[in-house]
Amino acid sequence: MNDNIYWVWLSRLSGIKPNALMRYIERFASAKRIYDSDETELRQVVNSTLAEITALTRKDLSEAQTISEKCQKLGVRIIPLSDEKYPERLMNIYDPPIVLYVKGNIPDIDKECTIGIVGTRKASQYGLTTAERLGYEVAECGGLIISGLAEGIDSAAARGALKASGRAVGVLGTGIDIVFPSQNERLFGDVESGGCLISEYPPGERATRYTFPARNRIISGLSLGVCVVEAPERSGSLITASRALEQGRDVFAVPGSIDLQSFKGSNSLLRDGAELVTCGWDIVSRHEWRFPGKIHEKKTLRKILSPERSRSASDNAPVTASDNVRVAASDAPATAMPAPVKKRPEGLSENELKVLDAIIGQSTADMITSKTDLRPEHVMVALTLLELKGLVKNRGNMTYETN
Q1: Angle at CA 250, nearest 5°, toward 180 and 255?
Q2: d(CA 202, CA 67)
Q3: Side-by-side strand order, sheet with 363-364
Q4: Any idea which fold 350-402 has?
Q5: Span 310-333, average pLDDT
Q6: What average pLDDT score do residues 140-144 get?
Q7: Average pLDDT, the chain
Q8: In this structure, are residues 263 and 257 in contact, taking their beta carbons and an 8 Å threshold?
Q9: Quick one: how far is CA 259 from the chain centroid?
Q10: What is the pLDDT of residues 364-380, one digit of tens each?
Q11: pLDDT tops 70 at residue 311
């Protein structure tokens, strides 16, 4: 019998957390030896409990056999802790999953500059644009994106990575065969083709209130660093950032408007010491020394336009927050429009002056960006600093005017 059956059996035992199971794996070295052990042998494990022993003496392999057969039919690979393909980076966290279910070709994670990009499902247009840009730029610079493939920021980052190099890893909070959200079916297929989908849950496993928070430890565990693009105060993305810190990973955040609730969590990360991000190289450069010759700064990165699409009269489909933002056909920056002459305050950076000059009446962040040669994330940083200096007022809905 294939040893994977015993690993699946071990992973499906109720009442034992992965970190507790690691004590038995360290003692017996394999799932089959745990299965073959009797109660007396199991009690020899340090700190063993009655609940654990009771669970481990359930020797029913029927569920594991059914899961194995489903995986074979669906082309899903079972990768237990003992498999050489199991990432050492993930194995070394406090509570690694006992088994990974994989669709696609799992890269050699330990030899990749893996970066998790996460954020809110209900993202602003600025957040979506920035996430896709960062995904694109990280991939262009040689990094590999780890994404939860949730609606909003996660999906945008994965799309950006696919546009750059066709490689991303999606970590699911459901069974490996379930597309959630359902509108991401095409994205799931693209990620599987250009990288892989990973889950600790077998085919058919539905999401619960616990599966997505548990999934977050895998996103951070596979990553060298995690970037939070846009997150409110109570957000699963902050859980991912917290797990990243526990695992000794870098934590990055993109600055957003101080008046928007959806950025309160990510802005608080910056206040508490997360590294501020304005481009993909800000993230990847931290690990350049680990991957000599593989990580490299791209001097000219393709510009990703605003999600607002040009539409013909026959195009009646609504544009939603999850619509894909486009990569411009040209690398040339947008030509700055002439701005009226204003009294220029002293002590401002070049970017702050450009943004201040671009604000005419009430201007949206997209309008301001289109009038400068700055990236959207640089515009948002400048707007935030101008707000703090009392020179700009946020009117809500990403609309600004000068004071």
Answers
A1: 75
A2: 7
A3: 363-364, 399-402, 392-396
A4: Arc Repressor Mutant, subunit A (1.10.10)
A5: 34
A6: 95
A7: 86
A8: yes
A9: 24
A10: 888 898 888 888 878 88
A11: no
Cβ pair 116, 134 in contact under 8 A: no
DSSP class of 205: P
Structure tokens at 199: 């889950």
pLDDT at 319: 34
Q: Are the beta carbons of 106 and 352 closer than 8 angstroms?
A: no
Kindly state the DSSP code that residue 393 receives in the 8-state scheme.
E
CA distances, 333 to each of 173, 365, 373, 375 (Å) = 39, 17, 6, 9
Residues 296, 98: Cα–Cα separation, whole Å: 35
Distance (Å, whole) CA 146 – CA 202:
20
Euclidean distance between CA atoms 126 and 132, whole angstroms: 10
Rounded to 5°, angle at Cα 356 from 352 and 359: 145
From-to residues of CATH 1.10.10.10 in the chain = 350-402
Which residues in 12-163 belong to E strands, given as ranges? 77-80, 99-104, 113-118, 143-147
Q: How many residues does the chain have?
A: 403
For CATH 3.40.50.450, list the domain ranges present in the chain: 109-290
Place of tokens 């707000």: 387
Is there a contact between 350 and 383 (Cβ–Cβ < 8 Å)? Answer: no
What is the Rg, in whole angstroms, of the alpha carbon atoms belonging to the chain? 24
**Predicted TM-score of the model (pTM):** 0.76
Q: For domain 109-290, is the CATH number 3.30.750.24?
A: no
Whether residue 181 is preceded by a cis peptide bond, meaning omega within 30 degrees of 0, is yes
- 375 vs 272: CA distance, rounded Å: 25
SS3 29: coil
Query: CA dist 65 to 33, 91, 253, 254, 264, Å?
Result: 18, 25, 44, 46, 47
**Residue of 224, 172, 217 whose CA lies nearest to 198:** 172
